[in-house]
Amino acid sequence: TSIFNIYPNPVNDMLFIEAEIEIEEVSIFDVYGRVQNLSAISNQPSVIDVSNLNSGVYFVKIVTSEGEAVKRFIKD
User: Fold this and answer.
1) 30: which of 37, 55, 62, 64 is 20 to 30 A away, CA to CA?
2) What is the pTM assigned to this prediction?
3) Contact (Cβ atoms closer than 8 angstroms) between residue 5 and residue 18
C-alpha cells in the first residue's frame, strides 16, 4: 500500500496530497531531478500550487516520520 495519494493527475493548478501520517516535507522534482518546489506543510489534505510549472512529467516526494515516498504526476 502507498503512504500517500495525490490528485488530480494530470493536474492544472493545485495538487492535493493526502497521507495517513503527518507529512514533514514535500518536494517536487522534474524528470532531471531538479527541485521545482520545496515546501513544509502541516495541513491535511495538503495543497501545492503547481500552476507555475511547465507542462510535463514531475515527481512529488514526501518525507514523514516513517520515511520517504515518491509519486509521479503530469502537469497539463
Assistant:
1) 64
2) 0.85
3) yes
Return the C-alpha cell found at 22. 503527518
Find all residues with CB under 8 Å of 54, minimum gap 6, and list them: 75
What is the chain's pLDDT, residue by residue, as a tens digit (76 residues)?
A: 568 999 999 999 999 999 888 888 889 999 999 998 756 555 667 888 899 899 999 999 998 888 999 999 999 9
Residue 53's contacts (CB-CB under 8 Å, 6 or more residues apart) are 28, 36, 37, 75
Q: How many C-beta atoms surround the C-beta of residue 73 within 10 A?
A: 18
SS3 assignment, position 21: coil
Helix (H, G, I), strand (E, B) or coil at 64: strand
Assign 30 to helix, strand or coil: strand
